[in-house]
Design goal:
Low-confidence stretches: 13-19, 141-162
Mean pLDDT: 80
Largest sheet: 5 strands, mixed
Number of helices: 14
Radius of gyration: 28 Å
Number of strands: 8
Helix content: 55-70%
Distance between the termini: 73 Å
Strand order of the largest sheet: 5-2-6-7-8
Amino acid sequence: MKRFPKTAALACAALLTTSCTGRYTVRSGYYSPSPRPAPASPPRIALLAPLDYPEVLSWGLVVCNSKLTAGRAYLDAVEAALNSVYGKVSRAGSLAGAKGADYAVEVGPLPHPYQLRFLDPDSGRLVAEFSSPGDERLAQVVSRAKSNGFGNAVTILLFPLALPMCAAIMGSEMQGAGRSFEKGSSDALESLMRSIASDGRVMLSPKAKLRLDELEARGDEFLKTGDAAAALGAFADAAALARGLGTRERTLAVKAARAAGKGGAPAVPEEARRLLARGQAYFKQAASPADYAAAIAEIERALGLAPWWASAHFNAGLAHEGAGNWREAAGHFEAYLAASPGAADAAEVRGKLAELEVRAERGEKAAGSR
């Protein structure tokens, strides 16, 4: 009795596996990051993109395998995201190749969680880590498809129909998983970039961080000794360095306003007055939470020129409140009270602060938001 040739068996197995494979290649340029204001003193960033970063996610047994080619396209998306925050990043194949940078960014493996680790290139020390759960549907597809029991059973029991049926099933599954990956990856990267852009640990170069700490400490010392004008100068310079750094920026704004409230406030520049007027005009025209973004941008620019200005802080608080940014609104109202401790509406503003705190704790959305 003649044996079935080995080459024929291998050819059949290859045909079977190839026919029952679902494939999806992630599109290059699938993610276009939102523009963000450039940091005052951007650090030098190196994206670690080793040659062996996994190109393909695959799973399955014998037949009905699944392959999602994502590696390089995903690294390109991470680079685009970092460029939107820092202006321009470089690439390095390893930590040793990132020695000229302030921070090296290591990308976690796919499919989830989406993870970026900021390292000190000289020591390898972890500076900060950011992660997002990302695309849960893709994770479920990977988990569900690992055994491929249905596909294998169909292939064995219904061989004449197995190939087209299995190929159709896996092809459809992979198309959905690929599109889900692109959407989930875009959302995850947007979330990561928002977190990174407001984090002082990675948004300033080491020298700028030292300078910021020095200016804040100097302002604190001047305030203790009663030199409000000198304190305001130090806090204003520190606030300029901390633009966009969330809690740190709001803390410095309150300190600058407090120094101004103690008699250290200079005249408000005319350009700041012009920008506040523009912000107020946008505020009056806002009809939905998203419409307040233009007002916020103009008023924040005014505060960049006069971080001690009580009126601008009050208007910024109203604009952030309209947008549903409860914590940001509270920060500006706190600065308003610090800059004008004897304000006639101080009790009303304190009541608003308590209300904003509760809204933030409950995770409320602004009226009219989707």
